[in-house]
Amino acid sequence: MENTDLLFASLVGSKVVKMLPRLEAVQNELMKHVSPPIPFLPFRNDEGVIDVSAEEYLNLWEADKPLSDEQQFFPLSLSIDEGTTWFRLPYEPLISISGKNVIAKRRVAKWNSENSKQLTGTIKERWSQDDYEITITGVLMGSLLRGNYEDCFPRADFEKLKKVLTYAKEIQVACPPLELLGINKIVIDDFSFPFTKGENVQAYEIKACSDFSYNLLIKI
Questions:
Q1: pLDDT, mean of each 10-residue run, the chain (220 residues)
Q2: Nearest to residue 133, comparing CAs of 31, 213, 206, 27?
């Protein structure tokens, strides 16, 4: 018997000591069917409780830190000064790319009375490749999940991105899937900052098209 058992026996009488083994067996059987187990006798139960220090809760309101280039799969960087400085999006965005061909078609009458077979379709005179349409969707996140506007909202990254999006010329980009298609410059068509749930989160959507340099002046 333990100290708690002796104390209980001294309070309720010595006869209860003889009942302790039987009551312990009853309690163990009840604990198999009742959740959570609540002991009704002063027996010590071994609980699988792990002590956690208070230090693990110091960073409870901190958001996830931005990922480096090595940690991102397809990092996207933008530059508005010919590649001198780059603004890498801190959290990897979703990039969708679509392209199409521009085909000049002529609908010519190809039926004649001597030939019973009428040819169908159009005459394709020439075709060229249109611009790539690029949609970039992502989020900006502040360092704290909750708190004041100055502490939570990603204002610094927001202003950097706004400066790039409102630039009135072509923008240099560096991203593996764009480089595979030969895209090194883009032009912003439109962008939006939709409502986003979370005090430290701001979503954005950018629609752009590819831009290629052409030398239209020919020296004679």
A1: 54 52 58 55 55 57 73 91 92 94 82 64 84 96 83 91 93 95 95 91 95 71
A2: 206
Q: Tell me, what's the pLDDT at 52?
A: 57
Q: Quote the CA–CA distance of 31 and 89 in Å, as a whole number.
A: 55
Place of tokens 């006798």: 41
Phi, psi dihedral angles at 79 (to 5 degrees): -140, 140
Q: What is the pTM of this model?
A: 0.64
